[in-house]
Design a protein that fits this description.
The complex is a heterodimer of chains A (about 110) and B (about 120). Chain A is an all-beta fold and about 110 residues long. Chain A is built from no helices and nine strands. In chain A, strands 1, 3, 4, 7, 8 and 9 form a six-stranded mixed β-sheet that branches. In chain A, a hairpin with a 6-residue loop joins strand 3 and strand 4. Chain B has about 120 residues and is an all-beta fold. Chain B contains no helices and eleven strands. In chain B, the strands form two sheets. In chain B, strands 2, 4, 5, 6, 9, 10 and 11 form a seven-stranded mixed β-sheet that branches. Chain B starts with a strand and ends with a strand. The chains are: A mainly beta (about 110), B mainly beta (about 120).
Amino acid sequence: QSALTQPPSVSAAAGQKVTISCSGSSSNIGDHYGNTYVCWYQQLPGAAPKLLIYGNDKRPSGIPDRFSGSKSGTSATLGVTGVQTGDEAYYYCGAWDTSLNGVIFGGGTKLTVL
Amino acid sequence: QVQLVESGGGVVQPGRSLRLSCEVSGFNFRDYGMHWVRQAPGKGLEWVALITYDGGKEFYADSVKGRFIISRDNSRNTVSLQMSGLRAEDTAVYYCAKDLAAGGIDYWGLGTLVTVSS
């Protein structure tokens, strides 16, 4: 199963903004019928993944509005403003793939706060 | 609050079988699909399987199709993963996770480690 494409790493100084891209195809992120939605997950060191963004751009209760999501065509983007040292983690995008009939994840992006 | 607790992990020889279980609480289990997702040491997330809310449909990653079976017991709030023909590349932490719909996952367990080694 091919993964969605994410940069292996990004970095930003504390307090700055960073974006993480996630590239897919017409069978997942860019599904023509709008049946698929992008989610973003945060995995802190030694912990289980945690849902950050669902439905392309929605935040679950308790997730600060410093985190945002967007989707355009076959790509999605996670934005983090006012980056903090506590945000250092791996970030994964995920979506349903209508060709594979399964969930597909990105390879993960490590966020480093300088 | 929502809790998902996996069990059944351990060390197993190649070619053998192992059964993972996940007990859930804190939500109406019979209304939601359930996933298994795994993560090999130092690697990213890999989706393994999904079972619909009523157990009527199952979906599998190509890498486990024909070897793994996902099942659920709505009377006991449990979801299981029967793994057979295990290979070294199946070594991973296996997470049980609650379906959010359209491929999303909103709650994850802490995971259970499966090591396939002779």
